[in-house]
Amino acid sequence: MSLDSKVPEGPLTEKWSKHLQDIKLVAPNNKRKYEVIVVGTGLAGGAAAASFAEMGYNVRSFCIQDSARRAHSIAAQGGINAAKNYPNDGDSIWRLFYDTIKGGDYRSREANVYRLAQVSNEIIDQAVAQGVPFAREYGGQLANRSFGGAQVSRTFYAKGQTGQQLLLGAYQAMMRQVHKGNIKYHPRHEMLELVVIDGQAKGIITRDLVSGELKRWEADAVVLATGGYGNVFYLSTNAKNSNVTAAWRAHKKGAYFANPCYVQVHPTCIPVSGDYQSKLTLMSESLRNDGRVWVPKKKGDKRHPNDIPDEERYYYLEERYPSFGNLVPRDVASRNAKNVCDDGYGVGETGLAVYLDFRDAIKRDGKEAVEARYGNLFEMYENIAGDNPYKQPMRIYPAVHYTMGGLWVDYNLMSNIPGLFVAGEANFSDHGANRLGASALMQGLSDGYFVLPYTIGNYLADQAPGKRYGTDHGAFVEAENEAQGQIDKLLNVNGDRTIIDFHRSLGKIVWDKIGIARNEEDLKSAIEEIRELREEFWQNVKVPGDKNNYNKYLEFAGRVADFFELAELMAEDALNRDESAGCHLREEHQTEEGEALRNDEDYSFVAAWEYGGVNGKLEETLHKENLEFEFVELKQRSYK
Amino acid sequence: MSKEMTIHLKYWKQDGPDARGYFEEYTLDNVNEHMSFLEMLDVLNEELMLKDKAPVEFDYDCREGICGSCNLVINGQAHGPKERVAACQLHMRNYSDGDHITIEPPRAAAFPVIKDLVVDRSAFDRIIEAGGYVSVKTGAAPEANSIPVEQEKANKAFDYATCIGCGACVAACPNASASLFTGAKIAHLNKLPQGEVERTNRVVNMVDQMKEEGFGDCSNYAECEAVCPVGISITAIAEMRKDYIKAVFKGD
Fold first, then answer.
1. Over 60: is that where the pLDDT of B252 sits?
2. Nearest 5°: phi and psi at A322?
3. Is A142 within 8 Å of B145 when comparing Cβ atoms?
4. Between these two residues, A637 and A589, which has the higher pLDDT value?
């Protein structure tokens, strides 16, 4: 049976507005009787918490960082899309919708994506009203730039710190509600278990990361806005504390995990320099507006890039994709970079890098103009890589950046567990098999400010106001015992390999075999290797210190344990999806040009997995949500 | 090829807010020049754990200079010797073979130590809570282009808004003042028409909260500006003081 996405009937353009008219409301005097837990304070979680509180609900907000302002949304650089059409270049809600569906290689839900495009404009209004200092034109109007996968300029930005500014906007809106007493705020708390009573999400168990104390929290609904799982690769552009634990523990309690194999590899990151490397740093995609990507035409050409004349440079994106050039979508740009390096044309010490060159932009617009656009990014590059991008090209290479997969949700952003809602990167919903640049901020804020505040009321309206089971209920006791059991188990192994060492080894398997390109043989061997390493982890991991104290490595141990299970599911999902789509390139299925070749007849579905336990191997059952395209025609993507 | 170095480390250990702290020493060989400062500490912790010694706790997250989690005081300087970078963006190529490095938490009464180099900066949240926002209803806002904002003003507002909330300004200030942090938020919002409306109440509420948290006053040492990883200008403090005096005389 296909999963029910609960997409409303009617024409695409009217689904959301009609749904808003049809869904149930909670009366103002009843709202204060409901309590909603929001886990995570990034764009989705921060926006949702602020919005619920504004509406009159009692909110409890949790984050693992020492302040809500540090959630990883803060690191998003380039911008946020909206269909305002301020530059008058022919943009519209339909075009933003269409670009997003096409960019996602027709593996996302039509109705969700259309809604995303519809509310995109309101996000900009909201952010401006909060005092987000977006870039402006001389006349005082908002400025736009272009991003990958689009032929219009629809991206709003605040230099290279758009995520920071939008997040601070949401954070400030949240702190205003904290001040009013409508949000109870719990930083340095990690969610370890979801509490399900009579089949509905009714609370969570957290660990206080300072005292180590486990705590029980009851609510009428739980929202997870806990980000993506890119750190399963160990090296990614994610923050070091980003993890899958909250989502995975919910999965273990019955929430389906959808499309785990859809992982976006960002084409423009600073390359790896050594084994000690702890993370990778992204250089915003906006740089591809002015930077030209190239490699030397001659293999292993060790000359300084400035000494290589134009005719000996291969501007491979411009040559292969004349209409989009350097602005092809991320999956296409990443695969091309990997291919030229695999073929021996890579540059730098490791040969795993390509050039991103600003010489021509500086010549055309002047150094000042380039500095105004990308100043902070150039500085960041110089700090890390040690050379000056005004004088010589940057070296870049793809790195894991974003995960399109996540917990399965319906049109209301509710998971298959009633009362459990999932927002932002933590859900699977809007980007299909590949996300376009400047769309993550859009989705996080759309979910938080403009979707959840309405759809959660539809659920709460059916819950008796003020009904409480009490945190002494057996489900709370059991969930706390599970959390405690896992912590004790980790501390009792007393092995002799460090957590980071295990994580790094896991990451290498996942990157090599479930990375930019996949094939059946690799995936099968990845599954075996992951199982073996997981087994060893539980026999031989070394977790320092104790549980009743601040203990960062204990936190990591729990998260790595979950990554070990997720990794196997990713391989399983990638193996099961015997087609290519967007970022998921199965080498067995490519067009003659090396593009992802879909199989719409057999794979036009969302793969939603149900957890069945781990016994040496991970047991998961597949459920499908068939994707129906009523309004767009499925095509082979082409950016030529 | 990259260079390797020996580095002599001295770092602060403290079990909790009320425990007595002390320095511990350790010499790390094979420090690669391309490592970030925090990666060097990761390597230190790996070695310590393999020797069954307690790792040193420190705060970090994004490791790209934007989240503001890291706040180490390195050889007496907040975020270390390189100007305009957070500790996570400081690379070991700024050091030489045989160097001695002392690492401490920021020392301020308003930032009590949680463990080792980790401190409690929730006072910053409470300063924002006191008024560091525009009181617009979440969920309803006018068309974004209906109020034009002068480009120069928007740029200025942005410059103040880039504060990452790390607390280096407090660590560097002889008075442990949070004036740069507080002033930056006030100056950011006051520059924009959206924030202008509440400027009087905002400055009073935020400055009062800053005092209540136990931060000292500003005596124009300008140490804060010198260590700020994002280069917030102390003109923020001047603006804050001007507004505060005006607000007080207005009788608000």
1. no
2. -55, -35
3. yes
4. A589
Chain A residues within 8 A of B14 when measuring between CB atoms: none
Tokens of B128: 């924002």
Q: What integer is the mean pLDDT of A140-163?
A: 91
pLDDT tier at B140 (50, 70, 90 boundaries)?
Answer: confident
CB contact under 8 A, B114 and A542: no
Give the pLDDT of residue A1. Answer: 60
**Cβ contact (<8 Å) for B61 and A279?**
no
Res A160: pLDDT: 84
Q: What was the ipTM of the complex prediction?
A: 0.98
* A chain contacts of residue B138, beta-carbon cutoff 8 Å: 47, 50-51, 53-54, 126, 173, 177, 449
- In this structure, the number of other CB atoms found within 10 A of the CB of residue A617 comes to 14
Interface with B, mutate which of A51, A63, A65, A66 (most B CBs under 10 A): A66
How are beta strands A420-422 and A406-407 bridged, if at all?
unpaired
pLDDT per position as a tens digit, A295-352: 999 999 999 999 999 999 999 999 999 988 998 888 889 999 989 998 999 999 889 9
Sign of CA dihedral B23, B26, B31, B33: positive
> Distance between CA atoms of B127 and A346, rounded to whole angstroms?
50
Q: Which of B39, B59, B141 sits opposite A277 (nearest CB)?
A: B39
A197-207 pLDDT tens trace? 999 999 999 99
Residue with the bigger pLDDT between A579 and A78: it is: A579
Q: Where in chain B is the domain with CATH 1.10.1060.10?
A: 122-250
Question: What is the distance in angstroms between the Cα of B245 and the nearest Cα belonging to chain A?
Answer: 24
Encoded tokens for A308: 């290589």
Q: Which residues in A lie closer than 8 A to residue B32 (C-beta atoms)?
A: 273-274, 276
Q: How far is B223 from chain A (nearest CA, A)?
A: 22
**pLDDT, mean of residues A545-555:** 97
DSSP state string for A120-151? HHHHHHHHHHHT----B-TTSPBP-B--TT-S
Q: Report chain B's C-alpha Rg in angstroms.
A: 20
**Is B132 in Cβ contact with A172 (below 8 Å)?**
yes
**pLDDT > 70 fraction of chain B, expressed in percent and rounded:** 99
Which residue of chain B is at minimal alpha-carbon distance from A42?
Answer: B67
Nearest CB among A66, A175, A542 relative to B69 is that of A66
Nearest residue of chain B to residue A269 (CA atoms):
B64
CATH 3.30.450.20 fits B4-114, yes or no: no
Give residue A616's pLDDT. 94
Question: Is A179's CB within 8 Å of B91's CB?
Answer: no
A474-626: same fold as A265-401? no
pLDDT tens per residue across span A466-483: 899 999 999 999 999 999
What CATH architecture applies to the domain A474-626?
A: Up-down Bundle (1.20)
Radius of gyration of chain A (CA): 24
Instruction: Kindly indicate whether the domain formed by B122-250 is annotated with CATH number 1.10.760.10.
Output: no
Residues 6+ apart with CB under 8 A from A633: none
Contact state of B157 with A133 under an 8 Å Cβ cutoff: yes
**Cα(B175)–Cα(A18) distance, rounded to whole angstroms?**
59
The domain spans of chain A are 265-401, 474-626
pLDDT of A132 strictly over 90: yes
Write the residue in A276, A379, A545 that is nearest to B54 by C-beta: A545
C-beta atoms of A176 and B135 within 8 A: yes
Is the CATH code 3.40.50.1820 the one for domain A265-401?
A: no
Distance from the first to the final alpha carbon of chain A:
39
Mean pLDDT score, A571-597:
93
Query: Is residue A330 annotated as a catalytic residue, yes or no?
Result: yes
